[in-house]
């Protein structure tokens, strides 16, 4: 009697699936994993460093609640962007081009370009500071070298997207290791840190604190990351072998886990930045520490280890190099989506880096290190001001039954997304009002 090693289901034997045609669960998961890693990179760029260090040094753990709320906003918005790209087969830029008038779509593209240049500016400045701290290079030389390093990182794409994602993940782990070691040396007040997770009204009432809060928001919820995430999942959706409801449900579940884990890790890095600044600088009375150079100089004596400053610089350089990839890829997909114009990554990097190099060289040439942090924080505020022009179309598309069908977002999630959009607009409005009335 012939035996069977597959289960009996109901009244009949069910033949086992062909192992050659059955994708294993790990393979299905890996097909949609990795996009979150690239997106998380954008949440750990040098702009985050500037806002977190300034906020932690000046206000202690108070702004930790802003980091948490911004991360929660980012998680929902990035998940919506990924969902829209996967379900519709079009990314956010392509949908904006088809759903809005040409004038409106061109305006949205222009605003997105401003955000990408602002982000690229932060990456160049941050990488230049890291190179100066590690090798003693002048800032102008560091700016030029940082521009060249962008092409080296993008060159990994020639060996395949997975190689690029692997290199990015390795640099993220290097950054995490550096911060874990520094936090161990700093020995923060974890009770005070936990208390800092509670939102406080003074954050909105005080102009200086609001300026940094909006900067943290812009550094955490980046508009061009929404475009990039939708494009990455659009491309992964195109590679799906079947588009049945079951396959789509599995893809969406995997994407949700990938996004949650990646951005959760990014939150830990950003929180560690602010906690480190609060524990080392604010606690010791150095509340005016804002520049990355000053932070580097003070870490070693305050923590009692010369390795602290080196780990700080290494992590900063790793974040700057990683963020280069995100900004360039985002610029490529937005240009292709809005203008239906495709460019090679190195060409796109040449344009964005060229536009960002000019103000970067002017700032470091005339203002020196003293102006770099102000420029970094200002670039993140610019990102925050551009954010509503990406978020509002995204939420609208995600809840559109015509575009999304049975996969459209509804109920509590849709309401939460609209509340986030309203909150972002309101925060930006308060910031602009304070600036116009001279309260900033």
Molecular structure report:
There is one protein chain. The protein has helices at 25-32, 35-41, 46-59, 64-88, 92-99, 102-135, 139-155, 161-186, 190-195, 202-205, 207-220, 223-238, 245-282, 292-303, 306-339, 345-366, 369-386, 388-398, 401-404, 411-436; strands spanning 8-9, 12-13. The chain has one domain (38-278, 288-437): Up-down Bundle (Amino acid/polyamine transporter I). Mean pLDDT is 82; it is low at 1-23 and 25-30. Helices cover 78% and strands 1% of the residues. The protein has a two-stranded antiparallel sheet. It is mainly alpha-helical. Its main location: membrane. The chain crosses the membrane at residues 29-44, 64-86, 106-125, 131-154, 166-185, 205-228, 263-285, 305-329, 350-368, 374-399, 411-433.
Number of helices: 20
Cα gyration radius (Å): 23 Å
Give the strand order of the largest sheet, numbering strands 1, 2, ... along the chain.
Answer: 1-2
Q: How would you state the average pLDDT, rounded?
A: 82
Number of domains: 1
Summing up helix and strand content along with how strands pair, one would put the structural category as: mainly alpha
Organism: Pandoraea captiosa
GO molecular function: cadmium ion transmembrane transporter activity; manganese ion transmembrane transporter activity; metal ion binding; symporter activity
Subcellular location: Cell membrane; Membrane
Function: H(+)-stimulated, divalent metal cation uptake system.
């Amino acid at each position: 009697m012939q035996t069977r090693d597959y289960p009996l289901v109901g009244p009949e034997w069910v033949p086992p699936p062909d192992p050659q045609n059955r994708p294993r669960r790990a393979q299905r998961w890996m097909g949609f994993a990795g996009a979150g890693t690239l997106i998380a990179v954008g949440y750990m760029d040098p702009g985050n460093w500037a806002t977190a260090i300034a906020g932690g040094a000046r206000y202690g753990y108070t702004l930790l609640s802003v980091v948490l709320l911004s991360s929660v906003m980012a998680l929902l918005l990035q998940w919506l962007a990924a969902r829209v790209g996967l379900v519709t087969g079009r990314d956010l830029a392509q949908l904006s081009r088809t759903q809005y008038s040409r004038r409106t779509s061109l305006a949205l593209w222009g605003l997105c370009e401003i955000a990408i240049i602002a982000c690229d500016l932060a990456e160049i400045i941050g990488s230049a500071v890291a190179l100066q701290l590690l090798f003693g290079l002048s800032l102008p030389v560091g700016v030029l070298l940082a521009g060249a390093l962008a092409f080296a990182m993008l060159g990994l794409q020639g060996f395949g997207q997975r190689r690029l994602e692997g290199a990015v993940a390795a640099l993220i782990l290097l950054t995490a290791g550096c911060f874990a070691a520094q936090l161990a040396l700093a020995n923060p007040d974890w009770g005070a840190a936990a208390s800092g997770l509670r939102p406080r009204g003074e954050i909105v009432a005080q102009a200086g604190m609001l300026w940094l809060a909006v900067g943290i928001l812009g550094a955490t919820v980046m508009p061009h990351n929404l475009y990039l995430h939708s494009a990455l999942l659009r491309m992964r959706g195109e590679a799906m072998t079947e588009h049945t409801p079951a396959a789509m449900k599995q893809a969406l579940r995997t994407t949700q886990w990938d996004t949650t884990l990646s951005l959760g890790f990014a939150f830990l890095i950003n929180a560690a930045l602010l906690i480190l600044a609060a524990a080392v600088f604010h606690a010791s009375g150095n509340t005016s520490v804002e520049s990355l150079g000053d932070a580097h100089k003070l870490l070693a004596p305050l923590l009692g280890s010369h390795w602290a400053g080196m780990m700080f610089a290494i992590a900063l350089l790793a974040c700057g190099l990683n963020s280069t990839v995100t900004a360039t890829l985002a610029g490529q997909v937005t240009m292709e989506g809005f203008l239906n114009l495709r460019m090679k990554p190195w060409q796109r990097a040449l344009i964005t880096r060229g536009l960002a190099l000019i103000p970067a060289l002017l700032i470091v040439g005339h203002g020196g290190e003293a102006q770099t942090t102000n420029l970094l924080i200002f670039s993140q505020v610019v990102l925050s001001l551009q954010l509503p022009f990406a978020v509002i179309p995204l939420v609208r598309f995600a809840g559109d039954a015509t575009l999304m069908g049975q996969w459209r977002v509804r109920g509590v999630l849709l309401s939460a997304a609209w509340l986030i959009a309203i909150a972002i607009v309101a925060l930006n409005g308060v910031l602009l009002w304070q600036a116009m009335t001279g309260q900033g």
